[in-house]
């Protein structure tokens, strides 16, 4: 991927390379942050491992770099535009080479889970919670019930309603206590950072609780651009 620059644009890069070397930097870089594949912000400064302080940019080079970053041949390389992306512009001021690297955040989940029998509930949790589960199974009489939960960003919650078929019902307090104990006891931190999501399925026919738990994952991946300009 080698874009064609005008002579004036090539000269702009050459002058900027001299400018950075006058500040003691042989290599410089700056980063653009994107949201939903659209440029969001950058701090208008350049950085280098050669010098301790950043190098202030200026309008002429800003206009050219922004034009390159907004190039659809770069943006079209992203697989997902739902999350965040990052574009890093690197300039080798001695060899007169500009390279653009692009990264995107990929979201996923890691599934975990557990199945609890009545014997498990009786041995691991309180008598009140056990009795509440027995009573719930009797009330369901062969039907299933479901409770969902979600957490992230230092906050989390269990849904207020227990779904039996298409209808929502209040969750008995001992059942709610049991569910929070299952979460906090087995998956401490489920509400922090990327968080987690899942559900409990109360299977009254088999007298089991199926606990479906999923950690949210977030990973930054490099996009293979091969975007190089020699000036």
Structure description:
With 231 residues, this protein is α+β, with helices and mostly antiparallel strands. The protein contains 6 helices and 12 strands. The protein has 2 domains: 7-95, no CATH class; 110-216. The strands form 3 sheets. An 8-stranded antiparallel sheet has the order 2-1-5-6-12-11-7-8. The chain has a two-stranded antiparallel ribbon with strand order 3-4. It has a two-stranded antiparallel sheet with strand order 9-10. The radius of gyration is 28 Å and the shape is elongated. The two termini are 15 Å apart.
Keywords:
single chain; 231 residues; alpha+beta; 2 domains; 8-stranded antiparallel sheet; two-stranded antiparallel ribbon; 6 helices; 29% helix
What's the structural blueprint in terms of helices and strands?
Elements: H1 7-22, E1 27-35, E2 38-41, E3 45-46, E4 55-56, H2 59-69, H3 72-75, E5 84-92, E6 97-117, H4 118-124, H5 127-140, E7 144-152, E8 155-158, E9 161-164, E10 167-170, H6 173-186, E11 196-203, E12 208-230
Antiparallel strand pairs: 1-2, 1-5, 3-4, 5-6, 6-12, 7-8, 7-11, 9-10, 11-12
Helix pairs in contact: 5-6
């Amino acid at each position: 991927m080698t874009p064609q620059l005008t002579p004036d644009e090539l000269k702009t890069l050459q002058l900027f390379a001299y400018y950075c070397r006058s500040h003691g930097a042989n290599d410089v870089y700056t980063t653009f942050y994107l949201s939903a594949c659209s440029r969001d912000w950058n701090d208008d400064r350049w950085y280098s491992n050669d010098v301790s302080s950043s190098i202030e940019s200026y309008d002429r080079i800003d206009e050219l770099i922004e034009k390159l970053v907004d190039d659809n041949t770069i943006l079209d390389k992203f697989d997902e535009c739902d999350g965040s992306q990052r574009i890093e512009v690197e300039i080798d001021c001695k060899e007169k080479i500009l390279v653009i690297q692009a990264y995107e955040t990929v979201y996923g989940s890691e599934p975990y889970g557990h199945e609890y029998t009545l014997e498990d509930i009786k041995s691991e949790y309180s008598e009140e919670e056990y009795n509440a589960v027995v009573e719930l199974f009797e009330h369901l009489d062969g039907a299933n019930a479901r409770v969902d939960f979600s957490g992230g960003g230092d906050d989390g919650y269990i849904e207020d309603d227990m779904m039996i078929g298409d209808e929502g019902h209040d969750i008995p307090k001992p059942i709610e206590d049991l569910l929070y104990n299952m979460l906090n006891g087995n998956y401490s931190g489920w509400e922090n950072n990327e968080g987690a999501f899942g559900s409990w399925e109360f299977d009254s026919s088999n007298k089991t609780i199926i606990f479906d738990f999923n950690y949210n994952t977030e990973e930054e991946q490099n996009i293979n651009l091969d975007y190089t300009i020699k000036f």
